């Protein structure tokens, strides 16, 4: 019979061959359009997004438009003249102002849908050489704090101006920088994480960003900055980076079971938007937050102690 002294333990790394698909530069991450260095949010990323744990400082973006348009019509039509207007008829001609924003002050005028050289007259007036362009209307955008007035020369059936984009829509059009996930051990097949031992994770810090987008005639400048970084380790555990301003702060995770995991680093973005329309500075708007995941595969192996007897010894 072999004695206990004749036995020795050999540590053997036992790995599994499970496969989990990882995100690539052309894939969808649960967020919107994904490039090598940028990502756009989807509706599922708004507020706290798909992060499954507590502690994320998120604010749900509004899905309501900044203001709504109505149309005011009157007795005036837009006209231009192919011949000089007789002096005695000049009093019947009115110039058309550009768009204005009415709040604490009036800003403008700026460009509008009124062609150059076009003026207005009462529709009952007939002046030699007068060509009618369309009805003079005022599309009025009304919010709780300001009014946008845009004069337009329109024909029958011309629709109102485009509805202002909501914060939720603006986020989904804004490209934001991506981060990268790093780990120690790196979690590869050749150098895996080990069950019941600490694995460390960190990411590349992403900085403040400014992006320009256009939606329905509105020119929008978005200024966004990251306010928090959060982790999900696919085994039900989550973590929030101790330094909310840096993804480079390492966090630890301990995996109980061997296998292939998908680790996610969530970046919480907060932002504001400046909206311009028809050359006018319309408003600044709070966008709330979006929470965007960056995914990475992580392989975990298990260390087992196997009893091994040296041949020829008892």
Taking all residues together, what is the mean pLDDT?
A: 84
The CATH topology of the largest domain turns out to be Immunoglobulin-like
Secondary structure tally: strands: 18
Inertia-based shape: rod-shaped
Secondary-structure-based class equals mainly beta
Helix content range of the residues, please?
Answer: under 10%
Give helix and strand order, one letter per element, not per position: EEEEEEEEHEEEEEEEEEE
Query: Are there runs of 5+ residues with pLDDT below 50, and where?
Result: 1-30, 104-111
| Biggest beta sheet attributes | 7 strands, mixed
Q: Proportion of β residues?
A: over 45%
Rg, nearest Å: 32 Å
Domain count, please report it: 2
For the record, the CATH architecture of the largest domain stands as Sandwich
């Amino acid at each position: 019979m072999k004695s206990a002294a004749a036995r020795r333990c050999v540590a053997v790394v036992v790995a599994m061959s499970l496969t989990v698909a990882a995100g690539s530069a052309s894939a969808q991450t649960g967020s919107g359009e994904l490039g090598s260095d940028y990502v756009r949010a989807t509706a599922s990323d708004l507020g706290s997004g798909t992060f499954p744990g507590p502690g994320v400082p998120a604010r749900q973006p509004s899905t309501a438009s900044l203001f709504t348009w109505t149309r005011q019509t009157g007795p005036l039509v837009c006209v231009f003249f192919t011949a000089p207007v007789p002096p005695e008829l000049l009093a019947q001609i009115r110039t058309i102002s550009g768009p204005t924003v009415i709040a604490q002050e009036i800003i403008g005028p700026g460009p509008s849908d009124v062609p150059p050289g076009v003026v207005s007259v009462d529709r009952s007036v007939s002046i030699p050489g007068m060509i009618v362009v369309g009805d003079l209307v005022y599309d009025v955008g009304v919010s709780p704090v300001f009014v946008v007035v845009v004069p337009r020369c329109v024909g029958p059936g011309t629709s109102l101006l485009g509805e202002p984009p909501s914060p939720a829509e603006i986020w989904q059009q804004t490209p934001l920088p991506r981060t990268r996930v790093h780990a120690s051990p790196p979690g590869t097949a050749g150098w895996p994480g080990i069950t019941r031992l600490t694995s460390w994770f960190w990411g590349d810090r992403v900085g403040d960003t400014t992006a320009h987008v256009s939606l329905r005639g509105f020119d929008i400048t978005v200024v966004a900055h990251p306010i928090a970084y959060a982790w999900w380790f696919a085994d039900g555990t989550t973590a929030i980076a101790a330094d909310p301003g840096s993804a480079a702060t390492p966090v630890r995770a301990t995996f109980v079971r061997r296998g292939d995991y998908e680790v996610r680093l969530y970046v919480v973005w907060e932002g504001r938007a400046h909206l311009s329309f028809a050359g006018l500075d319309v408003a600044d708007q709070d966008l709330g937050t979006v929470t965007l995941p960056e995914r990475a595969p992580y392989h975990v192996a298990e260390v087992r102690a196997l009893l091994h007897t040296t041949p020829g010894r008892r």
